[in-house]
Write a structure and sequence with these properties.
Blueprint: E1 4-7, E2 10-13, E3 16-30, H1 32-39, E4 45-46, E5 48-49, E6 52-65, E7 70-80, E8 86-92, H2 98-108, E9 116-122, E10 125-132, E11 135-142, E12 146-147, E13 155-163, E14 166-182, E15 186-190, H3 194-202, E16 210-221, E17 225-226
Parallel strand pairs: 8-13
Antiparallel strand pairs: 1-2, 3-6, 3-16, 4-7, 5-6, 6-7, 7-8, 9-10, 10-11, 11-15, 12-14, 13-14, 14-16, 14-17
């Protein structure tokens, strides 16, 4: 039986489909102690590589999907899931539209909040600026990269969220195309905001392990499961 949620008077059926989006992301090895502090309330453990945790910053421009068009920025940390597999914990996920903010919080427990998010083309890449109450939180530029053969069509990952003391796991399937990847390739600016301070504690800004640009991204989000 298909689950249906009511959000701001509209019906949202599961799974939610994103038919057209594009995205940029950068992945970093970061301070393990700071990562543990961020993840600690979930009871999960961060994934460690050579004694460092793995964090990513990503921004997405949603063009066509069940929640409408919007922009989104995310801070994620790789974790060991409750089932022993790998997942991502999402402690911060600002968006620039009210409906997707409400849907994200009510259906999946995503830590969404309203922000001004501007995505603009620059040289061979894109720049994303996130501002709250007019003040810069974070800006990220990605550029260049070489075509990545094959991509990761149909890749599934568990997205973990914590809201009001409830830990949820959401199955998340991605089908990227027109992917370009490169070592480094990212520039970050941090503003004056508690989340920016969290990023500083992780060791950002620093050189990315790798960056990616996804020209065409399709995704599916299943209903959340309380862990």
């Amino acid at each position: 039986m298909t689950a249906v949620h009511s959000v701001l008077g509209d019906k949202v059926s599961m799974p939610v489909e994103i038919r057209d989006a594009d995205a940029c992301a950068a992945t970093f090895l970061v301070d393990a102690r700071a990562a543990r502090e961020i993840v600690a309330p979930t009871g999960l453990q961060p994934l460690l590589v050579a004694g460092r945790a793995v964090a990513s910053l990503v921004f997405v421009r949603y063009v066509d999907g069940d929640l409408g068009p919007y922009h989104e920025f995310g801070l994620t940390l790789m974790v060991r899931g409750d089932d022993g597999g790998l997942g991502v914990y999402i402690p911060w996920l600002p968006v620039n539209q009210t409906f997707t903010c409400a849907a994200g919080r009510e259906i999946w427990g995503f830590p969404k909040e309203i922000a001004d998010i501007e995505v603009t083309p620059i040289r061979r890449g894109k720049r994303c600026e996130v501002r709250i109450d007019g003040s810069l939180v974070v800006a990220m530029e990605t550029a260049g990269g070489v075509p990545s053969p094959g991509g990761m069509g149909g890749a599934s990952i568990a997205a973990y969220t914590l809201m009001d003391g409830v830990l949820r796991r959401t199955p998340w399937v991605m089908n990227p195309a027109q992917v370009r990847m490169g070592v480094g390739g990212t520039r970050i600016e941090l503003g004056d905001h508690p989340v920016a301070d969290q990023m500083r504690a992780l060791g950002l800004p620093k050189r990315a392990m790798f960056s990616s640009r996804i020209g065409v991204l399709r995704m599916t989000f299943e209903d959340a499961v309380v862990v």
